[in-house]
Specification:
With about 280 residues, the protein is an alpha+beta fold. Helices cover about 40% and strands about 15% of the residues. The chain has a 5-stranded antiparallel beta sheet, covered by helices on one side. A hairpin with a 3-residue loop joins strand 1 and strand 2. The termini are far apart.
Length: about 280
């Protein structure tokens, strides 16, 4: 979030919580990315705040609530208030249960896989309109085609990313794998270790696709404990995901710390991954 917006976002979250009779004397920033995540004290509520124009908050609330009701391993909404999206001063605010992090934070690959399998099982029961995972590929391709959007990307790297996205998009589609509702980005940063067990957060990224696309975001060892994985499809999805997130790092508006450095490192990883997998993107 832009630095100029942070204080306003914090004030909006405190104002909403106070209006709901939650005691708020302080707000601690836990994460600042496309949205601001705050711990409100002393009520001990987690608030997620985003600019109105960027929000998909109602979708996230609806999905999380339905998954929680079905017993899936997901973080819960704040039980002391109505589960809804609030709006104040150009921001949308959602209120969630705050979970004290457990120590140690390490999650075994087997536990990670079991939690993700449970989540996927619950998601198969939901019928909600969501984007397709290939929409992200199309967005990345549009970024690459727009040099004003990615001005610092070298021509050779632009060609590598474009060819990789195009070839893998076609190869994955031709497999015709079964698709379902997915988390969209179930990486370790979206998995909490709590006294209630492992809990997934951040459902604004939900999409439809094969489970291998979700597994491509998790540590590699996780897939060894997830049943029925198509390993060839998973390898393709891993490279596809890497190409997508590498493209995002070259977006002129990217605010990830060290984003350009990561983008350069990930380009090298893509080149290394393509060779041993026999994926000739220039063929």
């Amino acid at each position: 979030m832009q630095a100029s917006e942070v204080s306003r976002a914090m004030a909006a979250a405190r104002s909403i919580a106070s209006s709901l009779d939650l005691a708020v004397d302080d707000a601690i920033i836990l994460n600042d990315s496309n949205k601001l995540t705050l711990r409100l004290l002393p009520c001990d509520v987690l608030a997620r705040v985003a600019p109105v124009e960027q929000q998909v908050a109602q979708f996230e609330v609806d999905v999380a609530q339905r998954l929680g009701e079905s017993g899936c391993p997901v973080a819960a909404l704040e039980p002391r208030v109505e589960p809804r999206v609030h709006e104040r001063d150009g921001f949308v605010i959602t209120l969630w249960t705050y979970y004290e992090p457990m120590v140690p934070h390490e999650v075994s690959p087997a536990d990670f896989a079991h939690a993700l399998e449970q989540l996927h099982a619950g998601m198969r029961k939901l019928d909600v309109p969501t984007p397709h995972f290939m929409d992200r590929v199309e967005q990345a391709q549009q970024f690459l085609a727009n040099r004003e959007r990615t001005p610092e990307l070298a021509d050779a790297d632009r060609e590598l990313l474009g060819d990789t996205l195009r070839r893998l998009r076609r190869a994955i589609a031709e497999r015709g794998a079964a698709e379902q509702l997915l988390h969209g980005e179930p990486h370790p940063g979206n998995l909490l270790t709590t006294k209630n067990g492992l809990l997934f957060i951040d459902f604004e990224t939900c999409c439809r696709g094969p489970v291998e696309f979700d597994l491509a975001h998790a540590p590699e060892e996780v897939s060894e404990h997830y049943p029925g994985v198509d390993q060839d499809l998973l390898r393709e999805c891993r490279i596809l995901v890497l190409a997508i997130i590498t493209t995002w790092r070259w977006d002129r508006d990217d605010q990830l710390p060290n984003g350009r450095q990561l983008g350069a490192e990930w380009l090298d990883r893509i080149r290394a991954a393509l060779d041993p997998n026999g994926l000739d993107v220039h063929g």
